């Protein structure tokens, strides 16, 4: 499996955004979370998210962002192997994890790629490669962005191409590592 077809690291420091998103998650009332495939989800204020991370503002002009959410998994939660229904790429950042992992899997060839989230780093995540999550200990919080455009219009590769084109056009912009 080619890791580049699974995920790409964005060229920005998500520290301020991560701090905000985690603080919001921890103070959120229980009723604000809605269930989603065994995990819980709540929406962040998109304007606030964009103001805390200027790169996402730029990306929002290239591909319209639908919403920014946080997903929470509790100890021993498992998210089965799947591909996302409507999304092509997402932008993800792990906010908090004690002992969990996320992996892409090629079931036909028995291969895997570890989605090795680094702190305060944002990644373009290809939701069309089968992926899964195991959470063994502690609460796991993940920041995630979904785009307006359906995966048929905005696939992962097409999205990466759009960002590369923007980098070329401006000459000074670095979006993807
Ligand atoms: Fe997914």
In the sheet with the most strands, the strands line up as 1-9-6-11-4-3-2
Helix content: 10-25%
The biggest sheet amounts to: 7 strands, antiparallel
Number of DSSP-assigned strands:
11
Overall average pLDDT: 94
Strand content range: 35-45%
Unreliable spans: none
The number of helical segments is 4
Fourth-tier CATH superfamily name: q2cbj1_9rhob like domain
Radius of gyration (Å): 16 Å
Named once each, the bound ligands are: fe (ii) ion
> Class in CATH?
Mainly Beta
Name the shape in a single word: globular
Which structural class fits the helix and strand makeup?
alpha+beta
What does this structure look like?
It is a single chain. With 177 residues, this protein is of the alpha+beta class. It has helices at 15-27, 46-52, 54-62, 156-170, and strands spanning 7-9, 34-36, 39-43, 65-73, 78-82, 89-96, 99-106, 111-114, 123-126, 131-137, 140-147. It has one domain: q2cbj1_9rhob like domain (Jelly Rolls), CATH 2.60.120.620. A hairpin with a 2-residue loop joins β2 (34-36) and β3. The radius of gyration is 16 Å and the shape is globular. The chain binds fe (ii) ion. The site of fe (ii) ion has 4 residues, from loops.
Briefly characterize the structure.
With 177 residues, this protein is α+β, with helices and mostly antiparallel strands. The chain has helices spanning 15-27, 46-52, 54-62, 156-170; strands at residues 7-9, 34-36, 39-43, 65-73, 78-82, 89-96, 99-106, 111-114, 123-126, 131-137, 140-147. Helix content is 25%, strand content 36%.
